[in-house]
Write a structure and sequence with these properties.
Helix content of chain A: 25-40%
CATH topology of the largest domain in chain A: Beta-galactosidase, Chain A, domain 5
Number of strands of chain A: 29
Strand content of chain A: 15-25%
Shape of chain A: elongated
Largest interface: A-B, 52 and 51 residues
Oligomer: homodimer
Distance between the termini of chain A: 53 Å
């Protein structure tokens, strides 16, 4: 937690002041000098905070009012929000006694209430129409009436039960939004009304989700971020610095048992761990802005992170929150936008639900706030334009004006490597993007840390996309969020028994066990190590990483590269896994291709009755549909999906089992998607390779009924040479061109010279890898 | 075949002249008076045919040239076609010796050749650029060089092998297109060149596909339509009336064995059957324009039907071909457009491949020709606008001008009943369309005749759509047209063993056998009988039909209705099947829902190993995933697909088996789609009912993660009363409203009075059905 003030005095020496120290010092002074403190307090009273000041400001509102009718996207959003709020005002105030889980009436009603009064508050400011202020006031008074006597929520599933909702998380959502509503009508209320609301509602509410639930509040977790921000937002409105300090740095005392876990199996708090908002910004974000839980949860946390940052920027400018950790908040917006496929859907790393995208309201906030607080990031405008709506505040106005004035530039997603971990040294996630003649191919390779309680056991796993289509899928999570019929919308049993297990992912399984034996505590200690990431040559983009802890005694080294070769219609994906083990093991490498099998170049026998592939660690969920073997050295399968053809060509031995699977066994309530998979299984082997190429080729048009380029371009794929330190992969194409890929496993420096001799011919190169092409 | 000339003289008496008789008379005169004939021929020579005259005419071309640059869609199509042809001209002429099946090089090359020279001929006319004429000429000369010595195609699979292609069908495609090219450059060629081409190429070509292949030419079948039109088109260009007569009425002698069959198992020709183009227009089309093979094949046949009609209209106006059979050709265009879902995809009745749509080139022709030869059918322009391209002829120009001038009106698909059979008395296909608050729900109920060799054994089957999404799917065919990897792109074994079988469809199976015992000959003798079709009330649209021949001794009477009830978000589908049998049987009723099961209201046990549901007649292809029973009287399953929820509620007894299935067993080469199904099975029962309701309800948004209206609205569904003649279905909703549907099975007159007594209460109504609603 380091701040740079002014310019560096010398090249290597900067004046560094820790923000934390500043606050500590401030508190010390405040506490030790009560009289002075009182004086300060009096100054504050006279110099008191303007309202609104969180996401709207007095001058901002004036600016907005002047622009009304001249900024199409802003005007459209305003009209939509007004229609929505007007309908709710007609419906009347409903503040039921809490009873239900999410999806149930009381839950959904309270959720709607906070979303609507936040909007009503904004409408009051922008439209200067007291109808909206009155509505917010009535709603707040209704809550203030029931809150003092409300017991803890009757549903008992959560490790931190709320009062309005079954978990403190949702209570915190409520307060984050409601604080904004309160801020908007602050001056509309009398002092008596404000005192009543603060005494009977906001203060006890903030106390409940913090002091009374330290296991919720004093953590590093997206839940706690919401809690910290809720307390921080209301602290800002109430101008309560002590409460703000709690929000920023957490409770001083919590007595949390270091072995305590939450409902997802995650630890509550490590001994000595820093907590509070700043710690939640510090620890889960890597310097590259990657949030360790993955994009689905990063998206969820972005709203409180950014809306609170916006409020702090408005009220506590001196905190320079957007510069914190080298501007990680603004960086994280770009990271998140880059963690999407061509349609804007987030890659479903860890427990991610497919279909969540940058069209979500959290990303509307993120893009608008990101644009406003960064300079000239006009590429964000092109995302905002697709979103088609903006925040009704200064940031949204700026975006809408930018769109109106045609300032947007394309948002170009590049190949990039995102480090994981607080200091960026706990592995990462690499995205390779290959522009072909058709849609872009995107590879997502994960060599990150565990990702907290939502992490999956899938070191060195990958997924592959073509445009917005999944080619090789990551399963995502086994949950139907907010769909009552499926376990009340919560995590399903199969999330643990299938989605988290290693076999559910496109990576190496050893002896039918998951990485780290599926143990969260062990997994949380480790991460994979990057070996190389190099996208400097657009014709050969490469990522390579090692995993040595998933299976003690076994090292897995995976290298994946997009190769653009003129003999091929599109870039192909080269996948090389080198395994070095101390003992013999069984290895399974699944590829969850999506679509229908077109052909295989080997004999296989389809089962007449289907049995599960195994009994545990996820294998029990796979139907064993067919098994084959080949003596040709290559297993090749082609499949068809969304009018396109794909082929996987793998180097295999005569002993390897080639297994076709389908997800869905031991799934008593049809909770799983019945998708296909293809597994290459090697048994009783120590050191070995899995080498494959995935091609996207051709097209089928069901209207013209014409199939083009429907076949693989690869005639033969071989490991021409291998030793401890090197591998040479030979690719022979059907048009008789050929190429060879050389790779060094032992030295990843970019200027190291390498030399190997294959069949009396000497090959020399500099750097980790080399592609030799004869065509 | 009846023509009305002038106005009726008396109410019930019209002057009727059979067109066929006119032609016979004409031929009689021509044949009996050779001298006169010669004289006529001489007149013709002097009065000889202008060129072009088939799809382009001299005046038409002049008109087109004048409009160039002023008609956007026409200009765009022209530019696209020009670019395509120019590229091929650069590529040079390739006329390989025939060798391959479809998908192979020689097949695809010859196919491309005819498509390109047709376009090149048109470009020559429109652009007046001899480059194109020269290209066509070179291509034709290349064909004239090889044709005289070409043997029959080396591939032997077809019942009618071609010379350029493996089947005469494709040779006929070639001639239909090539005739147009020849017409376009006719005047560019010298008389010697024309004589050479006609002598060495066109005349022997026409002879080969007609006289030398009567089993192909002298049939009523889409194959023969192509053959007839091919001969007819070249006859028109060559001004050869004798050949034209053969095209219109077939060969006089053929010696076809009445037991002979084609590759699909269809009979070649019934004894005494009329043949030739007019017979192919007469017999397979019903008076409503429904083509008995179904929309997928109707689409395929539309091009030759309409392009030849256009040519006849241009050259033989006196035939009044568009008025033939009460204007059935133009009517059939509307029929075909109505046989599509909201996205324009044809309903996959019989052997239909999904994805074929009104965006196909055949439908571009159909829409353009339809617009040009009908009056004020401006709704066709809205389809043409979606297609975004037009024919490069007079018809396409008219359409493009219409679009440019904004003349289009919406194409509104209505509920309609399409009779099947030459005389419209062989059952039919009903389409009910219910406009809801979201997308339109469409029911397709099939109670037609067999549909020739491409027919499926699925009497009284149905499929259900919401917008462009399948809710309850028809499987379509087991074939991947032109995809080499899958059986060379031909029909797969599973088309016979699965897709054609009754269990593959959403209709009643008796004793695990298919309708007509899967016998084509028997199936071809019968059709279902309409009982009622009434869409006069938009709140209750109904179709009802009976089948008595599929299972001798058993009558199946199915009634389906869309009901708009204010308690429901959307119209729901009521499905009532009454079975009257002479003996006890087992009945299976499958519903092939698409999507993921959300919930069931009964206990079921998922199988730990999967076995096929049966051993034959398609049952061997179903995995038995789970079986349940219920004592509640209702089986209810809900599923989720494409962000929507659906629920099937069925009246069941305690004994009924409730079976979850998945397609894919006994499918050794992964040829089938592994889709789910739900079967209600009643065993050892004689007379019985299957009564169900299908609801579409609610929505799930993966971005907001909000599920709305996710549950069924039906609390209880009961058969309150039933006897030989009546049934009363009672529907109780969760909001305590209720309704009752009364139906008479024995009298379908619309003014018959009915009365039944249920629990001492007398119900009276007029007409077949009545819905009583208490809310």
């Amino acid at each position: 937690m380091v701040y740079q003030i002014g310019k560096p005095i010398k090249t290597n020496k900067v004046l560094k002041i820790k923000l934390h120290d500043i606050l500590i010092a401030f508190l010390f002074i405040a506490a030790s000098c009560k009289a002075q403190s009182k004086a300060i307090s009096n100054i504050k009273k006279s110099n008191k905070l303007e309202h609104p000041s969180l996401i709207l400001t007095k001058t901002g509102v004036e600016k907005i009012r002047k622009q009304l009718g001249n900024v199409p996207v802003f005007d459209a959003t305003l009209a939509k929000v007004k229609a929505e709020v007007d309908a709710e005002i007609l419906n009347g105030i409903e503040v039921p006694i809490p009873k239900d889980y999410s999806g149930g009436y009381t839950h959904e009603r309270h959720k709607k209430n906070f979303l609507i009064i936040q909007k009503a508050g904004v409408l009051y400011q922008i439209l200067d129409d007291a109808t909206y202020a009155k509505y917010v006031k009535s709603m707040l008074l209704a809550y203030a009436k029931i809150y003092p006597t409300l017991p803890v929520h009757p549903q008992t599933r959560s490790y931190a039960r709320g009062k309005l909702f079954w978990q403190c998380l949702n209570d915190s959502n409520w307060l984050v939004y409601t604080s904004q509503a309160y801020d908007c009508i602050y001056n509309y209320l009398t002092e008596n009304e404000r005192n009543h609301l603060e005494k009977d509602l906001f203060k006890p509410f903030a106390k409940f989700i913090s002091e009374e639930n330290p296991q919720f509040f004093n953590r590093v977790h997206n839940h706690s971020t919401w809690g910290n921000v809720a307390v921080g937002m209301i602290a800002l409105v109430m101008d309560d610095d002590k409460l703000l300090e709690t929000a920023l740095h957490g409770l001083k005392h919590d007595n949390i048992d270091p072995n305590a876990r939450d409902n997802d199996g995650g630890f509550i708090k490590k001994a000595g761990q820093k907590v509070g908002f700043l710690a939640n910004l510090e620890e889960p974000f890597s310097p590259d802005g990657y949030y360790t839980e993955g994009p689905y949860y990063q998206r969820y946390a972005m709203y409180p992170f950014l809306v609170f940052a916006e409020a702090l920027q408005n009220v506590k400018l001196e905190l320079k929150i957007f510069e914190y950790k080298n501007g990680v908040l603004l960086k994280s917006i770009y990271t998140l936008l880059n963690l999407t496929d061509a349609d804007g859907n987030f890659f479903p790393l860890n427990d991610g639900q497919k279909g969540m995208s940058y069209y979500s309201r959290e990303l509307v906030s993120a893009v608008d706030i990101g644009y406003y607080y960064s300079e000239n990031k006009t590429d964000l405008l092109s995302i905002a334009k697709k979103q088609g709506e903006v925040l009704l505040d200064n940031t949204g106005l700026a975006v809408a004006i930018g769109i109106r004035d045609g300032l947007e530039t394309p948002f170009i997603k590049k190949s990039l490597d995102l480090s994981d971990g607080k200091n960026g040294d706990e592995g990462g996630v690499a995205i390779l993007r290959a522009n072909g003649s058709k849609d872009e191919l995107s590879l997502v390779m994960k060599y990150s840390a565990q990702g907290l309680s939502h992490g999956h056991y899938d070191k060195l796993s990958f997924s592959l996309y073509e445009g917005g289509n999944e080619v090789i899928q990551d399963y995502g999570m086994a949950r139907f969020v907010n769909i009552q019929q499926k376990g009340g919308g919560n995590y399903l049993k199969e999330n643990t028994t299938w989605a988290k297990q290693t076999i559910a992912h496109n990576t190496i399984n050893q002896d039918e066990t998951s990485h780290f034996n599926g143990d969260f505590e062990t997994g949380s200690l480790h991460h994979s190590e990057k070996y190389i990431f190099d996208v400097s040559n657009s014709k050969l983009q490469i990522v390579s990483a090692k995993e040595t802890n998933a299976y003690p005694g076994t090292q897995i080294h995976r290298t994946m590269a997009f190769v653009k070769d003129n003999s091929f219609e599109n870039s192909f994906l080269l996948d090389i896994i080198k395994i070095d083990a101390e003992k013999n093991h069984q290895y399974d490498l699944p590829y969850y291709f999506l679509g229908q099998l077109m052909s295989a170049n080997f004999e296989y026998t389809k089962s007449e009755t289907l049995m599960p592939l195994g009994t545990k660690n996820g294998f029990q969920h796979l139907w064993k549909e067919a098994v084959g073997k080949t003596g040709t050295g290559n297993a090749k399968i082609s499949w068809f999906n969304k009018e396109r053809f794909y082929t996987l060509t793998s180097v295999v031995s005569n002993e390897d089992d080639l297994i076709f699977t389908r997800i869905g066994a031991n799934d008593p309530r049809f909770n799983l998607r019945n998708d296909p998979g293809f597994i290459i299984r090697k048994q009783q082997i120590k050191d070995t390779y899995f080498v494959s190429i995935i091609e996207s080729h051709g097209h089928y048009d069901p209207v013209s009924e014409i199939a083009t380029n429907a076949f693989s371009n690869i005639k033969n794929l071989t490991i021409l040479y291998s030793d401890e330190a090197y591998v040479a992969i030979h690719i022979e194409n059907i048009n008789h061109t050929e190429s060879m890929f050389l790779f060094s496993f032992k030295n990843n420096s970019i200027d190291k010279k390498h030399q190997i001799k294959i069949e009396d011919k000497v090959y020399e190169w500099v750097g980790v890898y080399q592609l030799i092409n004869n065509n």
